[in-house]
Batch of 4 targets.
Target 1
Amino acid sequence: YKRQDLRDSKLKDSILIGGNFTGANLSGLHLQKRNLINSNFTNAILIETHFEDSDLTGSLLNGVNANKTRFNKSNMTNVIAKNGNFTESNFANANLTNVDFTSSNLTKVKMQGSTISNTNFTSSILNYANLKGQDLSDVNLLKANLTGADLSNTNLKSVNFTNANLSSLDLTGVNLNSSNLTNTNLSNVNLTNAKMNSIIFSNTNFSNANMQNLQLNNENMSNSNFTSANLTNSDMKNTNFTNSIFVSCNLTNADLSTSNLTGANISGAIFVGTKLKKTIWIDGRTCKNDSVGVCK
């Protein structure tokens, strides 16, 4: 089937296991409930193709154009789908275990109810993707762009977000424990009541983020950017904020006891009611035990 135009083909009685569809045009074909194990769809055109309930285990989908394609309930275990166009495709209730989506465009995809385990989204585009309620723990989102994605009620524990763009997302109450947020863009994000223990922070951008009521004890947040962020009522005891930026940041009633602010930029920051017991101040001196709002 290599490089063939199969748009008008039925393929009803064909044996498709291990088929070679390299460069072929299968747009609009109905291939529901078919056994397509170990098939090669490299650079194929799969626009609006139907793969519902099909078994694509071990198949190659590198470089495909799969716009608005239906993969609902399909088994895509161990599929390699690098550099593909999957915009507006439907992966609802599909098995995406060990799928490699490196550098693929997954804008506006639907993944509700799908199994996402050890899935690789490195450098992928997931803008406005529907990942609501998914368990993304241990997933690789290195350099991924998730602008506008729906991550509500999503488990993001131990996710690698290094160099990822999560700007303007609503992450209220999500579990980010043990995730890697190195160089991550979290500007304008709502992190109210999010779980953020044992996080890897470095050069993280929290500018204009809503971070009320967070618990960030014993973290290393050096060189992070909190410009105009809202940290009201947050518990950030014994945290390393050296050389971080708090310009115009709201720290009202936050607890920075025993934290380290050496070299931090606090220009215009609000410290009303902020607990500064034994905090190491920006100039290296240690605040007294009764320091509240002002380092004594």
Target 2
Amino acid sequence: LACGEPPRPYGRWAPWKRSRWTRRVRSLASFYSTCEGHHFAVTRTGIDNIPAAQKVLWLIFKAYLRVCHGFETHFPEGSPPPRGPFLALTSHFSILDVLALIAADPDHPHTTVAMKDSVMRFPVVRHVLRAWGAVSVKRDGHDLGAIRDILHILHQGRGIAIAAQGTRSRTGHLGPMDPVLMRLAVQAASEGIPVIPIVETGTYEAMPAGAWVPRPHKIRVIAGDPIDLSPWVGRKVDEARLAEVAALIQSKIAALLPPERRPAPDTPALGPLRVMPNGRRHRQKTSVVVRKVKLP
């Protein structure tokens, strides 16, 4: 392959070098690592200039989902846009959501995903996700570097999918929206970047939180029309207005979900306040940082 740097050594696997299966895993991990950090541009008309690792991942995930889960996609015309950046705010009920989003990408592959940093601790999974261009995010809400990475990806003209709740739902119901991501959505809208609601149905039934083996169940990925956030663009987004943004985005995502996956009656639209290590309120801190990070 001529799509990246030579594979890096994996010294911590040295005690098992003579294992046939370990050598195969190391070879696969090295194959993925050769394409780390490389960007790509593709259209609906072809799959030119796609790194080999990304093409292989897309084919494997899509074949698995079609055979085992009767995989389907339902995208309205122009959503997500075939060209240019977009921010997809998604539901998140299962680890299968990531596979479904990758397989559903209409541009073979064009959209990257944001993943919690704990997933990156597993060697093979880490290199698979890095080959895809995934962004590692800390779930404590203090990862401002991840916000900059997301804005950088959008500036490159690529799409990115992020769970609007900021975490996986363990109850099977859509939960409150993450305040940091709500500010990020307003920031993206102010730059003219479409904000798209996307849901994955059937993933919770196939593999809920705590399950280790997926069950056969039909999985669909459904996208909605872009969300109009113009009423909040160019205005100071205080806590009350942020709650309005969260309520709108939560309703747009819930409208695409089946009734049993929609928010419970007592579910708030906006997630709870978090406290920074220095004692300051998390929303105030992130609002300042996001306003400073402007797309060139």
Target 3
Amino acid sequence: NYYSVGQSYQTIIQPGSTIINYSGFHNTIIQSSLLIDSDGDGLPDTIELINNTNPQKADSDGDGINDGREVNVLGSNPLKSDTDGDGLGDYVEDNTYGSNPTVVDTDGDGLLDFDEVNKHNSNPVLVDSDGDGLSDYEEVITHGTNPDEVDTDKDGLSDGQEVLSYKTNPLSIDSDSDALQDFKEISEYKTNPILVDTDSDNLADGKELELGTNPNQADTDGDGVIDGLEVQGNSDPKDPKSFPPFLNRGLLVHYPFNGSLVDISGNGNNAQLEGNYVQSTDSNGNEAKAMKFD
């Protein structure tokens, strides 16, 4: 195109074009409009015209981010203050939370950036905000725990440990309601935090500690009667010579150890052998009158 000297023209010159000054005047400056950035926002006026942004206003949508950064860095819409429509403005996402203003769920954890910030107090750019081993989504949707608190119930076990390792309730300090805290059952008493009665002796673990019996041993004193029955019968579960009165302590069974498994006491409690055994010599030297077990 050729233009007369002294006239002003506006045109879009494609990249790579050459501009030659034929005016003959050394003080005449011809400048490509491709390079002009009237508002100094980092976008040449020609690009602003293509994007329908205002070449005279650095921040066309007034969201606090200049058009050049929106187009060239963030990929956001310079004409919309909330490009992804997630309820968080582009400026807040970019400058406050570091989230992506073009994606509604920046960390891909299943929770919207807006909800993470305004409802759950979690980090929209981290899948597991508190680093407890559970994703924010799992904490909020599945378990009801706090995604910004490592140990929601403050029992000394992280939410991840409770759910993944011990199968305890991350919302209760005593998952099995046995009067012992989960942390102490695991670390101190070595009992099962999800069983009320670890040793199945009819006494709750907490009650055993109260009585001084062993919550991991059904018969603390080794007298053949489980602790629960002793307590029920008002005998001492820590004294092997103490028995509940309702137990018949007479002769229950008598085996002569002569190779027979017949109860000769008359109570009919005939025996049945289980496991590996061989007939052996008894203490009187009688062969095959005793039994030897592995």
Target 4
Amino acid sequence: IFIYGPLATAGYLNDVQGGDVTGYAVRTTDESTIVHLTNFSWDLSAVSSGFLGATGVSTLSRWLIEHLHVESLQTSGNIFSWGAGAGANINMRDISLVNSSATPSTDAMIVFEALEAVSIDGLYVLRPNASTGHIIDAYDAQNVSIKNVYDATATNNHVFFSYVGATGPKNVTLENIYRITSTTGVTNSIRNTTYRITNSNMNWAAGAAASEIIFENITGNIDTANMTDIKLTHCTGTITDAGNFAGTLSGWRTAAPAAATSNGRKGQYAFSATSSMLYVCTATDTWKRVIINTW
């Protein structure tokens, strides 16, 4: 399906089933400004380029893709690939991506470059255990919102979210991002500024400088190296720092520190219900406490 040309200012495709193409199932150019795809079921062969390839995205492009299921046997390539478009908006809802190849692609399933806004709400992913390709690679996009994700792969040896390029995305919200709890998983990588990551059992780190980051309700591990201006609330995994920590790390720890020199960062606090103690971290690995009384 090729959406192209001066007349392709709007394209609407509904209730489509097909597959086994050698290129992309849907291909567009920069002259395609409004595209709505809904109720798709598509099979990709081992030699398919992917489901959607959008190169030279128009600054006026508006995409809505909803209720899509893709079964892939790809051994290389992305399922979705968007080129740069400074004013382009991508909106995806209720997406299911399954790769069952014996030699799965090591490329990311979803790739988007410098776009104005990206919204993904409702994403189910299943990949072979041997797959090391990322799920989402984000270039210099901004206003990125990814919510309600479940990675059902039994052995998660692939990254769910990673930045690409010299800058990375900014103004990013990642909410309700989960994998199968019985697996250890690998670490997701962020970069740039203004992240809010809430409700996730995955591991998180910054591959390069990242700032203004809020973590809430994270049960995975967080490596604060390369991060500044961090706030943690109800984060129960291991919080580590490779020595590049700067700024104030604040928020509740679930467990009270065992000793005055327990691991901690300035600004953290904890409460012990059994001893009625309130603990405050006043400097790196330095805790003080007070007894809380009724009155």
